[in-house]
Structure formats: C-alpha cells, structure tokens
Amino acid sequence: MGLVVQKYGGSSVADAEGIKRVAKRIVEAKKNGHQVVVVVSAMGDTTDELIDLAEQVSPMPSGREFDMLLTAGERISMALLAMAIKNLGHSAQSFTGSQAGVITDSVHNKARIIDVTPGRIRTALDEGNIAIVAGFQGVSQDKKDITTLGRGGSDTTAVALAAALDAEVCEIYTDVDGVFTADPRVVKKAKKIDWISFEDMLELAASGSKVLLHRCVEYARRYNIPIHVRSSFSGLQGTWVSSAPIKQGDQKVEQAIISGVAHDTSEAKVTVVGVPDKPGEAASIFRAIADAEINIDMVVQNVSAASTGLTDISFTLPKTEGRKAIDALEKAKNVIGFDSLRYDDQIGKISLVGAGMKTNPGVTAGFFEALSDAGVNIELISTSEIRISVVTRADDVPEAVRAVHTAFGLDSDSDEAVVYGGTGR
Amino acid sequence: MGLVVQKYGGSSVADAEGIKRVAKRIVEAKKNGHQVVVVVSAMGDTTDELIDLAEQVSPMPSGREFDMLLTAGERISMALLAMAIKNLGHSAQSFTGSQAGVITDSVHNKARIIDVTPGRIRTALDEGNIAIVAGFQGVSQDKKDITTLGRGGSDTTAVALAAALDAEVCEIYTDVDGVFTADPRVVKKAKKIDWISFEDMLELAASGSKVLLHRCVEYARRYNIPIHVRSSFSGLQGTWVSSAPIKQGDQKVEQAIISGVAHDTSEAKVTVVGVPDKPGEAASIFRAIADAEINIDMVVQNVSAASTGLTDISFTLPKTEGRKAIDALEKAKNVIGFDSLRYDDQIGKISLVGAGMKTNPGVTAGFFEALSDAGVNIELISTSEIRISVVTRADDVPEAVRAVHTAFGLDSDSDEAVVYGGTGR
C-alpha cells in the first residue's frame, strides 16, 4: 500500500455536506492502508464570486493581488476539509501551495510549476497525518509572492505532488464517472473509457475534451504518474490514464483503435484573402500573430490560383483572441500585403483520436464517409499521427459527432443516462 | 511627514463600495506625503460566515485548521483593497500576516505577537508602494503555522506594526467618530473625547467600552504609539489616545477630571455561601477557579458573622464562563468547605474612569450620590486609583449610566444623534 494523491474539484466540495462526504472517502483510503495526500479546489462558485468582487473594485483585475485574492478560496475549502476529517477521528493538516512547496515562476494568474519541495507534506505523512493541500496555487521562486496556475490548475498541483512524492496513483475526483468516448451531453450513447494512453488523452484534451486539461496530462506523462479520473459521488472505477494498459481482473484492457470523438466550438476562423503566393508571406502573417501573443490551432493554405498568383490562408484560434488577431493583422497589412480579412466565429471542430489510426488505413476514409452521410460539409482538415480534425459549421457539430461515434462502433449498448458537468478547476 | 499606520475594520470594508471609499482615503494620506501602511479586517460578516461553515463540518471548531480558515477573510479584503488603490493610479502591495513578519506564539485562535520583522513592508514602502497588511493573523515562531490573534486582533496588528516601523501615529478607522464619554446608544448626550491618556483608556476598555480592546491599548502604551480612533465615514478628527495631551490649534487639550462612564452587562456574579472564615479559604476557592482557566473580575468578601464564623465570598466573571466556574467549585466543595453556591446573571457593572479621581476626593461621594438619587441599589464595589466600579441589577444600568454622566457634567450641549455600531475586529 503506497501513497495516493487524491484531487477533489469544486463541485465535489460545494457545501458542508459535500465536504463531509469527501472526508469519508479520504478516511476510507487511509483505513485501507494508504498514505493520503489530498489536493482540493475552492468550494463550488467561490472563485467566480471572488472574480465578481474584484471586477467591482477594479476593471480587468490581474497580477499579484488578483492571485492573492483567488487563493483565499482553497484556504477555506482545505481548512474545512481538514476539520471534517478530524471530526471523523483521523488527524489531518492543511497546507497552502507555498507551505506544500509548490514553487512556480512569477507569471501571475497563469504561473508554471518549476519545482515541488514537499518537505512539510512528507513530515506530516510520516507523523501519520492526512495532508490536505490547496490546489491551483504556489509561491514564486524569486519574489516569494503567491501565484496561481490558471484554470485547471488544481489537477496540475495534484499530478506535480504525485510526481514529487513518488505516488502510486493520482486520483482526480470529479462529478463525472470518467473520460467518455464523446461528450455525453451530445452523444447519449457515449461510453466510459476504462483505460487510455497519455498520448490519446493529450490529443483529446487538445481537441476539446474538458475532463482533464492538456497541461496536467503532459505533466503526468513526463513523470509517468498514472491518473485515475473518477466520480466523487459514485465511487465506481473511472478512467485510467497511463503509459501501459491496466489489468481489470485477469484481463488486460486492450488498446482501442479509436479512443474517442472530441468536439470544440470555442474557436473562430480567420481567413487572410489575397495573399501573394511567394516565400515568406505565411511567415509574416504568423509573426504578426505570434507577436500579439496569440496561440493558433489549425492552419490551411489554399492552392494558389495560377492566373492571379494570389492565395488565401485560413487559421483557427480561440474566439476570445479574435479581436486581437484582427487588430494585429490590420496593423501589419502593408508589410504582409493582402486584400482583406474574413472572420467567422460560427465554426466547430470535430476530432477523432486513437493510436490505432497509425495502422488502420481505413480510419480516415471512414471518418469522411460518416460526415458525408450525415450531410456535414468540411471546411478545413488537419491531421496528426493519432488524430484527424475537421472544421464544420457550428450548427453541424452535434449531428457530426453522433454520426462519427456510431460509425466507429463506439456507441454503448445501454441507454443509461450519464450525468455530466464541469470539473472545477 | 512620517509613516502612518491606518487600520480599517470590517464595517468600513463591508462591500465593494466601502473598499473603494477606503481606497480613496488611503490615497489621500499618500498624497499628503505620508508613507502609508494599512491593516485591514475581513469584509463585513465574512468571519462569522466562515465560523458558520466550520460549525457545519465540525462541532466546536478550533486549533490550527480553524485559524487557516479564518485568515482567508483578510486575504480577500486586503487583495481587493490593493486592487482598488491601483485602480486610482497608485501602487499597492498586500501582505499576509506571515509575509508582513507578524511572529506569534503557537496558541491557535488567540495567539500573542512576540515579534514583528517587517522587512518586506519596509522594502515595499521604500519602493514607493502603499503596503496593505492582513490584520488579525500571524505565523507561529516554532512551527511556521498560520495563527490568529482573537477578536480585536486587527487593532493589535496595527499597533504592533506601528511600533515596529516607528510610525508617527496608528489610526484606527471604525464606524463611530471616536471614544465617547459613555455608550451613545445608552446616553444620547455622550460627548466625543478629544484626547484620553493610555491609562484612562485601559480602564475604560477593561470596564466595558468596546471601541478599543485592552490588549491593543496596552501594546500602544508599552511602545508609546499614539492612537487616533476615528470614523472612516465622516473624516472628522476623532479621539487621540496617547501619553501626553495633544494640541488642537493653539490650545493644549486639558486632562479631564473624569474621562467617561463605562458599563458592562456581559458578566455574572457567583456567591459562595457559608465559607469558614479562616486563612486559606479564599485562596482555595480562587485556586479552583484559576485551575479551570477562568479569569475573574471583581471580588468581595462579606464581613464575617461573629456568631457562626462563616462568611460569603462573591466574585464576577464573564457569563460565558459561568457554567465552568460552578462545575469547578462543586468539584472542589469538599476541599473548600462551603454551604451552597448562588449564580446570578442579571447583573450589570457601571464604572467611572478618570485620572482626576486621585486628587479630587469628592468623586467617590458624588458617584454614590448620583446612583442613590436615581434609586439604584449597589451590590458590589471595587476601586482602582483612577476608577470606581459598582455592580447593580442589569435593569438599572441604563438609568444609572445616564445619572452618573449628568452628575459629573459630561452631558453634551448639542442634541446631535451619534451613529454607533460594532468596530469589526
């Protein structure tokens, strides 16, 4: 029986009842002989309420003070959780990110963990305590200021602690039963995945699946920490994310050809129309975008029309960055040399992810056939070794996801309803 | 222009509007050329809400985790205040008690400050910032755990920082205009005191005046830090508490003969009936009480009745300790040897405070005459060099306070209403 790190999201500790329920689950793990480290998010809507308050005193709150404000949320939940555990007769101690040794860079509001020195956690465990750690927060290496890791940061805290403490597993408790073959709100017949590789999970996360964030999976892969995503409500086995397939009973879970279908309607498409088709043009466009610190996703360049020597370049990016991108391109219009810009935020992206693609040449064809049969028009295509993504009209997304899910035999036989919600942060 | 420490209570920063109003006042002080350190309490009812939550997960919350929980309140208010100041174009940095160097002992929930090492505050000031510090909290010297100072702790934080930073003055902003000659809720004609000595203020605080807590005044006297108690709403001159009288314009404010009338209805009276009148009896009673860690206030021993050789001993103590005291005495009944116990929680205490008492022999007589004229019966009497206190029926307290206030010429000529409320912590 080794050390386990458990992470509970905001929806799992939304009120006193939730905290008491979670406390029981933690004590259960301790009774089973584990050393237990718990990472906890702020209660329910606490973070949003603090953001509201901040916006009332200061437009566009950010920086050092905003981090100081937001980290109050986890202090509250972790202290309450420690009290609830003590009330069950077990000893628990809570630690802020700083006390837990979560050392970050100084980029406030989206800091990166650069080291974890969990000396106090180790001592607390050795003295027989359950250690409760505030998720989402750390302390900057140079200035010793409180930092936050951005949305989803608590998952990263959990994985980073699991790595630093050499944990057996990092359990991410949430309000869904695990990772599904598609978003159950869209595909009623979506199935829970028993095991998925780090690589496939990374592609799903990058393609719109919200259960685990990309950064957290990346961290787990780097340190080879198995993640177990499961529900804090049901107690069922969830989804294992690891490098090698797990065993269930006597049977090894096989690697699926296709892991799942992800979708994303949070992006917009920018088309730069009438770009001279000569070397360096694309570079100057994406230099302008990069200088504005905008991350882009897919890029497609049309075949040049021989008669004009002009071409169009399209790319997708988060809708929230749309305004900034258009401004940056307009400013660089003379340097780049183009006719006009088109902006379209009514698009959606559907992605099919699975390591089996590499060795199953029929996958791509099957994907396009399914979309065609569903009457969905494709606007952009992009592929990796284990993923195909297409951009369509946003309105077509639900139908397209369902069609692809069925075509690849992912539909569940049962009609059981699945409850699905956010994962806290 | 030197350094000023300003402290704002919870009612002054109860909402976003309050925070913005306070931010303006702070910036005003900065513009006037001061270096400004601000100590802030939790917003409005935040602390009570956190206590509620704690009681939902754990009966009788206390200790390390309870402190961790409560300190979240000041983190929120201090960060919001720093943001509001920045929004006015001035630079501000917020610091937790730990970051501000408030070092305490390890007695959770009522820690004592044992050192203040404000290196980070000094640096922030030298770089031109306004420094915002979380009141009510510190970090324990040995274990580096977060501690709280108990009710009223923010005032103590402010005075302690003022002493460590050698401030010109410690301004305590609250929701009343200052310290009054009596509680304005009871005595409509109570007057604001312009100046009061540390000694008189200590006696008032010990006698039931709630504007400043005893511990905070004691700290200020030890380090000779002038306190200016004033309203964060009106901006008027409030009450100065210091060792020597202040000047107002050309005139030095004179020491008053009588500073004010305080009252307290939070105490109960215990009478130990039929105690053998021999040496060591009183000692054994108060040893039993002290072993139960109960602080008592007044003590009176009746003249022994010669016929029986028995006497009665009465003392007062906080009502909240009543049950504990009775239990402790019952347990020690055989050792002490007494007939019975009487418990009375319908008492009130009225105290007249003033350094002038020492040299004005008529004061005591005048005090008793005023009470007698008002038809108030006296049950216990206790005196110090600069205070007389009596215990009466609780119902008689308002009338008694008004009668004494009038008799000593403390009534104001104006009929202006005074707004009075709590002082946060």
Describe what you observe in this structure.
2 copies of one chain form a homodimer. With 425 residues, chain A is an alpha/beta fold. The first copy, chain A, has a domain at 3-175: Acetylglutamate kinase-like (Carbamate kinase, 3-Layer(aba) Sandwich), CATH 3.40.1160. Helices cover 33% and strands 25% of the residues of chain A. Chain A contains 13 helices and 22 strands. In chain A, the strands form 5 sheets. An 8-stranded mixed beta sheet of chain A has the order 3-6-2-1-9-11-12-10, sandwiched between helices. In chain A, helix 1 packs across helix 4. Residues 417-425 of chain A have low confidence and may be disordered.
Helix content of chain A: 25-40%
Q: What oligomeric assembly is this protein in?
A: homodimer
Strand percentage of chain A, roughly?
25-35%
Radius of gyration based on Cα positions of chain A: 23 Å
Greatest interface and its participating residue counts: A-B, 36 and 36 residues
| Helix-and-strand structural type of chain A | alpha/beta
Low-confidence stretches of chain A: 417-425
What is the strand arrangement across the widest sheet of chain A? 3-6-2-1-9-11-12-10
| CATH fold node name of the domain at 3-175 in chain A | Carbamate kinase
Just name the CATH architecture of the domain at 3-175 in chain A: 3-Layer(aba) Sandwich
In total, the number of strands of chain A is 22
**CATH superfamily name of the domain at 3-175 in chain A?**
Acetylglutamate kinase-like
The level 1 CATH classification of the domain at 3-175 in chain A is: Alpha Beta
In whole angstroms, the N-to-C terminal distance of chain A is 29 Å
Shape of chain A: globular
- Please work out how many helical segments of chain A DSSP would assign: 13
Mean pLDDT of chain A: 90
The profile of the biggest β sheet of chain A is: 8 strands, mixed
